[in-house]
Design brief:
The protein is α/β, with parallel strands linked by helices. Helices cover 41% and strands 19% of the residues. A five-stranded mixed β-sheet has the order 3-2-1-4-5, sandwiched between helices. It has a five-stranded mixed β-sheet with strand order 8-7-6-9-10, with helices on both faces. α6 crosses α8. It starts with 8 loop residues before the first strand and ends in a 14-residue tail after the last helix. The site of 5'-O-[(R)-(carboxyoxy)(hydroxy)phosphoryl]adenosine has 19 residues, from α5 and α6.
């Protein structure tokens, strides 16, 4: 008689920026618990993440969040097979909190430690519900700190094809939201404002960096929105206060469309270049419905059509499920870290 193999439970820990998160995931995809303590309220008044405040809040929340993740998962400590922690990239003084907690638990419980690249974990979110990943795949990560295109050979093998040379896509959303005086965090605010706007109202630039490039640049479009609102070289009045809701909506929709056009074009180029059968999409900006819809259209209309795998919305922004899920693949491959593990900003 065949005995069913025991499932592998990974405790994932994430503190790379402004979410303190812990999760227990079985076999890379069965989510037993997922806890996220968001710091949005703490950073709101500054219009962006303040590293020292983030670090302090992680210190306060890390153990309650981990304890609750274990309680909700209803697993005994002996049933946890390994501790996976995001140790790069991110804010060093934020990452160090998760890394220290993970190392402590690993040492005290005698469980293996697994180091996770936060960006690769974002892509893992896109693979959560997929049994059969058709390769080759092109993978786009669009987050607050990064915009990267990869040739994905497996969850553990990613070759960088291109990345942003200045602002990340999410950063551009956040900065444009600030220019338009929309609430923090900027990405969801732009998306909401854009729903009622005309995406063709204003022709903002699409920076392509040449016909072959797979790199991105979003600082030009951010400056174009700034000059549109405050005059060329910011020499005019700030017109945002006197703009109607419709005008703000039109700017948001036109900006959003321009950014999506660039992301689509570059991903399409990369997919053609590597002959991709699958497109993977992850990171905070992947929560944007318009972006998801347009990527789906691109994949459907490609010849031959490509499969789009996009992270479920709750797992687009930072979470620990993606860390535990990628941890499972590293566990299976025997890729462990030791107690000398340090956080790394890049
Ligand atoms: O992946 P993430 O949570 O953190 C980083 O690793 O950076 O991404 C956060 C970014 C922020 O810039 C936020 O404004 C953006 O994702 N974002 C969105 C949406 N939701 C979050 N951008 C556009 N549309 C959204 N719905
Ligand atoms: Zn992230």
């Amino acid at each position: 008689m065949q005995t069913k193999s025991k499932s592998v439970n990974i405790l994932g820990i994430e503190t790379s920026c402004d979410e303190t998160a812990a999760a227990v995931v079985a076999d890379g995809r069965i989510i037993k618990s997922s806890l996220i303590a968001s710091q949005t309220k703490l950073h709101e008044k500054y219009g962006g993440v303040v590293p020292e405040i983030a670090s302090r809040a992680h210190i306060e929340k890390i153990y309650p969040v981990i304890a609750e993740a274990i309680t909700q998962a209803s697993v005994a400590k002996n049933d946890i097979d390994a501790i996976a922690v995001a140790n790069q990239p991110g804010l060093t003084i934020a990452l160090v909190v998760g890394v220290t907690a993970a190392k402590t638990i690993s040492f005290v419980w005698g469980k293996p430690l697994i180091a996770i690249n936060h960006l690769y974990a974002h892509l893992q979110s896109a693979m959560l519900s997929e049994d059969n990943l058709e390769l080759p795949a092109v993978a786009l990560i669009v987050s607050g700190g990064h915009t990267c295109l990869y040739d994905c050979q497996s969850p553990l093998e990613l070759k960088l094809l291109g990345s942003t040379i200045d602002d990340a896509a999410g950063e551009a959303f956040d900065k444009v939201a600030t220019i338009l005086k929309l609430p923090y965090p900027g990405g969801p605010s732009i998306e909401k404002a854009a729903e009622k706007g005309n995406p063709d109202a204003i022709k903002f630039p699409r920076t392509m960096l040449g016909t072959q490039s797979l790199d991105f640049s979003f600082s030009g479009i951010k400056t174009a929105v700034l000059y549109y609102c405050r005059g060329q070289d910011m020499k005019g009045e700030d017109k945002v206060d006197s703009m109607s809701r419709q005008q703000i909506a039109d700017i948001a929709a036109s900006f959003q469309k321009a950014v999506i056009d660039v992301l689509l074009e570059k991903t399409h180029r990369a997919a053609e270049r590597i002959g991709a059968k699958t497109v993977l999409l992850g990171g905070g900006v992947a929560a944007n419905s318009e972006l998801r819809n347009r990527f789906q259209e691109m994949c459907n209309s490609a010849a031959p059509p490509k499969k789009l795998l996009v992270a479920p919305k709750p797992y687009c922004t930072d979470n620990a499920v993606m860390v535990a899920s990628l941890g499972y693949h590293k566990f299976k491959a025997g890729l462990f870290a030791d107690l000398t593990l340090e956080p790394a900003a890049m």
